[in-house]
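Quick check before the chapter quiz. The format below is the same one you will see on the exam, so make sure you can read both the input and the output lines.
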Amino acid sequence: DFAALSYYVAFSADNGIGFNYTFNAPNMKNREFEEDGSADIKRFIMELYNAGVRSMTITLPSVMEVVQSMGLDIAVKSSTICQITNVHKAMAFKRRGVTRVVADESINRNFGELKRIRKAFGPEVEVIANSICFKNCIYRMFHYNQIAHDSVDFDNKTAFEFYAHRCVSQRFENIGNLLRLNWIRPEDLKHYMAIGVNYFKLQGRHTVVKGDPIRAVQCFFQEEYEGDLMELLD
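Here is the expected output.
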């Protein structure tokens, strides 16, 4: 609830930790274009703001405009789902008021492109360090859309499992595909910082329940890890 969220945000701030709210569904069934839907979104954003939220990750440009129209001091970060793979896309979002971009994982190892994005956009460029998605996956955007629908109205187990199973099967069709995933070793953060990329995201909401995210954070802060790669990523 919002009382608990307010406490959480305040506690984080007291300990020098910023808070970013993820609002990055790739579709909202066009609710943001309806009068009632837009009003609902604005009410929800206002509740988040009153709870202390001052930063949000958003995918839909339409929702970005709804948030920005409210005149609040909320920084908008574009999600990796925006598929920012080049300078043109990064700068298009910057012109629309986005203060930080999360690069598409498909260019995690394309240092030339990352360097060009960093030079054009500025220091607020972020990459995901522990990506487990298949590189250049044909199911990626469709999987995100399926998740968005099922997060609101889950009534089809086949849809829920289809893309997840196809994703995993691609990873294991060839053992080399595990090495081709877009992960970044803790030891290699220095190469990203050398081109000016200083923001790294560790993804995986499921790890809060089933994994050990604190250990993962420690490994990346120490820039060193010995052990099973998949254990680090999961």
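If your answer matched, good. The longest strand covers residues 55-58.
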